[in-house]
Amino acid sequence: MFTVTVSPKFLVEIPLAVREQLRIEAGQKLQVIAFDHRIEFLPIEPARQLRGFLFGIATDIPREDDRE
């Protein structure tokens, strides 16, 4: 776990290990969500980059009648 400090201008530096793990680059857009007393930063991925991320997912699970 990492600790960061909010600057007087309300800026926060994302630790290097986190940037490397999530492959966040300078200038990249992040979505910010306030949820249950916490702040979440989600990298915005272009739809093209998400292609194939569900490869191998089980598709044989039972579905509700209105979902077939």
Question: How would you describe this structure in keywords?
Answer:
2 strands, 10% helix, two-stranded antiparallel ribbon, 1 helix, elongated, alpha+beta, 68 residues
Please explain how this structure is put together.
By secondary structure, the chain is of the alpha+beta class. It has one domain (16-67). The protein is 10% helix and 18% strand. It contains one helix and two strands. The protein has one helix spanning 16-22, and strands at residues 30-35, 38-43. The chain has a two-stranded antiparallel sheet. The N and C termini lie far apart (43 Å).
Short description:
This protein is α+β, with helices and mostly antiparallel strands and 68 residues long. The chain contains one helix and two strands; from the N terminus they run αββ.
How does the SSE layout of this entry go?
Elements: H1 16-22, E1 30-35, E2 38-43
Antiparallel strand pairs: 1-2
Number of discrete helical segments: 1
Percent helix: 10-25%
Average pLDDT figure: 88
Low-pLDDT stretches: none
Strand percent estimate: 15-25%
Overall spatial form: elongated
The domain tally reads: 1
Nearest-angstrom radius of gyration? 18 Å
Q: Major sheet: size, sense and barrel closure? A: 2 strands, antiparallel
Alpha-beta classification: alpha+beta
Please report the distance between the alpha carbons of the first and last residues: 43 Å
Total strand segments: 2
Read across the widest sheet, the strand sequence of neighbours is 1-2
Topology pattern, helix = H, strand = E = HEE
